[in-house]
Amino acid sequence: MKIICIGRNYTEHIKELANERPTEPVVFLKPDSAILLKKQPFYIPDFSNDVHHEVEILVRISKVGKYIDKKFAHKYYDKIGLGIDFTARDLQQKLKEKGLPWEKAKAFDGAAVVGEWLPKSDFESVDAINFGLERNGVLVQQGNTSHMLWKIDELIEYVSKYFTLKIGDIIFTGTPSGVAKVEANDELRGLIENNEMFKLTIK
C-alpha cells in the first residue's frame, strides 16, 4: 500500500504559503509507516519546532489501474475519507531552499492521519464535498472539493501515468487554507459534512 499526496491543489493555500501556482499537480509520497495508528496521539517530533496540520479529503483505490482515462477514473475508487498531512514546515522550508526532496518534512512516522471512510455512493458528487478541521473546538480549516485545481478524477488520471494504482492505495488530495502550527495538548477533529471522521490529541 502506498500513500500518494497532492500539494498546492487549493488556490487560497498556495497564496497563504506564497508558493507559485503549479501548471500540473505536485506529487509526493509517504510510506505506510507514516500512518498514525488508530486512537493514538500525534507526538511532535524532536526535529521540528513548527509542525503544521493540513486537513485533506482522501480517496481509497479499489481496483488496479495504470494510464486511467479521466472518464473511467470513477470506477477505481470506492471510499472517501479525511486525513491530515502533518508537515514539519521549518524542515520543509530548509529543504526547499536547497532544492532537496520534502520527504523528511512530510513522510516521517505519524505524519499521515487516516480517518474513517464513507462509501463514495453517499455523495451526490465527489466534486462538491464540504470538509473541515476543528482545533480545540474552533473551525480552523474549511474546504470544498469544488475548489480543487485538479478534481479527484483528474488526479487519478494524472497519477496513474506515473504509478500503477493498487487496491488499498490512498490519495491525499490537497489542503485548503488555514494550515497552522500544532501545540501540545491540542485536540483536532476532522469533519466531512456533519460526520466526524477522526479525533486526536497532540502530545
From TrEMBL:
Q: Which Gene3D superfamilies match?
A: Fumarylacetoacetase-like, C-terminal domain (3.90.850.10)
- Lineage, top-rank taxon, reads Bacteria
Kindly indicate whether the keyword Signal belongs to this entry: no
One short Pfam name that applies is FAA_hydrolase
Q: Fumarylacetoacetase-like C-terminal domain location, by residue?
A: 2-187
Q: Which InterPro entries match?
A: Fumarylacetoacetase-like_C, Fumarylacetoacetase_C_sf
Q: Which GO terms describe its molecular function?
A: hydrolase activity
Q: Which keywords has UniProt assigned to this entry?
A: Hydrolase, Metal-binding
**PANTHER family, A to Z:** ACYLPYRUVASE, ACYLPYRUVASE FAHD1, MITOCHONDRIAL
What is the protein's name according to its record? Fumarylacetoacetate hydrolase family protein
